[in-house]
Fold these 2 entries.
Entry 1:
Amino acid sequence: MVQLIDGKSLSNKIIDEIRKDIDSIRLNNQRLPGLAVILVGNDPASSIYVGKKEKVCNAIGIRSLVKKYDNTITEKSLIEEISLLNNDNNIDGILIQLPLPFHINQRNIIESVRPEKDVDGFHPVNIGNLFLGYNTFVPCTPLGIIKLLDYYNINIKSKRVVILGRSNIVGKPLIPLLLQRDATVTTCHSKTINLSEITKEADIIIAAIGKPNYVKREFIGNGAVVIDVGINRVDGKITGDVCFDDVKNVASFITPVPGGVGPMTIAMLMHNTLKAYRLHI
Ligand code: NDP
């Protein structure tokens, strides 16, 4: 019988622990942590994500500053705005809500955030530190996945882990995280041939491709652990990259969508913001 990996419940536990830490900061009359979120344009999905992050911040006592800019803002002006936040002692973390409009170079914006305030862990300095195994800000979704595996006592050491997807925000940062935990890691992407032959051999499969219900029963070996990162909107419903009904009779553990990896991403953002605060204070 497959076991559900309940990311909602674990994320609530983690967020509650962070809230307690912030309560004691407040009791000591210290400055509270501050997170600035930059939102450019009116992408509805981005607005929903920013709203969710703001709500959690408010609930646990992180001061949330949402900076909204029109689609027409220039790259130069946006970098100037980020520079103000870099120098603001009340702001510990800066998050750039992606995607940005096409006329703005995403790389230049990410690199304009001070690495010590880069709570998303996307700055090349932080990514470099991660690959070298140094303490750093780890991107929230990959970090959340590792926390889920650990919480469910799913052994990573010496396991064959296959990652589907090689994006800078999910697939790539998972590689060093899993290597540090002594997994044997394989990364697949859109040019991989015979994908299901590779995934069938995996003890743990992590799907982050953005293709609804793509991973079917024939991709999964008996008893494999399946982590579904995908968030796809199909007919107004959120669907993962894994065809849950197809896979549930073969896998040993599976993350549901919604309620699996997604809530962990927000919990890890709070975790990284508190970490930035502690480095900063
Ligand atoms: P990207 O679009 O940036 O990357 C997708 C990756 O999947 C690419 O590396 C691409 O390969 C690969 N890919 C695409 N099609 C296939 C295929 N048929 N077979 C194998 N590999 C394929 O996506 P993201 O990493 O940003 O996001 C992936 C999914 O995760 C999305 O659904 C997104 O919404 C979701 N997501 C969820 C989060 C959460 O909190 N749960 C957070 C972030 C993302 P190539 O490099 O060759 O193009």
Entry 2:
Amino acid sequence: MKAKSVILTGGAGYIGSHIAVLLIEAGYEITIIDDFSNSSPLVLDRIEKITGTKPRLIEQDLSAPDCVGSICSALAGRDYAGGIHLAGLKAVGESVDQPGRYYRVNLGATLNLLSVMEKLKCKTIVFSSSATVYGELNASPVDESGKTGPTNPYGFSKLFNEQILSDYAAANAGFQVINLRYFNPVGAHPSGLIGEDPKGIPNNLFPYIAQVAVGRRAALNVFGDDYETIDGTGVRDYIHVMDLAEGHLAALRFGLSGNWDGVECFNLGCGRGYSVLEVVNAFAAASGQKVPVKVVGRRAGDIAEIVANAARAEKLLGWKTQKDLNQMCADHWHWQEKNPDGFG
Ligand code: UFG
């Protein structure tokens, strides 16, 4: 049987590269669209090392005006079964300082991809959304019917993209949209060949802890210990990036094998929360390294707790997480120890 072709935007990034590996291993033929603005070309060699296949690449800023024609030409000659769309900017704080750029890039990329997909008659899109669309309006665990109310432009760009996709599906019979609302992706491929490599000072907890453990930073700043949580520090639903990547494959299959059109939305999380201090202790145990902490003030925009109800994904996609916090820490550390400076 001919391999199904899939467009993967943002496929050189942290999450995208793990999805790329699983797609290739599952027999899909993939084309990555990425401009390496927050990733390294080396990732493609690493994907090849893991899978034996180097993915096809279109090096392109997907949000650039007038890029649709050249992307369509580069994609010509194949039937594309679906698009998995991750390309976009993702730093919450930066989005507050540069809202125009965040809306231009994150919405522009989606609109351009929709034009490409329309021209190629590709009717299934899996979109990288985020738990951040829920803001702080819901008690945890939150399910997909939770109220939406992001607290920053990055979060709004995710929600607006969901709206654009929903309107597009309503206007185009046969079009399938699957929005995946990620909770907190962490960990790395078990090979230690790909993983998260943030540029500059990490915004997120796991990469920061990993850099402390490997000796690149002195101590973790714990942003507040006076929340109403088990130990006063923020509680999140961490999900192993391999489980998250499996969720994309399950979502794609759900689209391609299902006789439906319209919009489906799924939380991808474990359904269990851990505090910052619980994560620190688990990481120290898994790595055998010391992780000094310093409690500082709360970070603006943070919420006390958010945990997923991921029952819908289990019921309809047949997907649930397999890897626990220890595995997340062990794999994140394996990647960091093997690549102390990331992709260099
Ligand atoms: N934290 C610290 N110190 C740090 C970094 C984080 O104490 O140096 C704490 C935060 O206060 C929070 C927890 O660790 O309690 C997790 O913080 P992250 O920055 O890792 O993750 P967030 O939950 O704030 O945000 C992440 C992504 C967003 C996404 C959101 C979805 O960064 O893109 O999850 O819930 F939208």
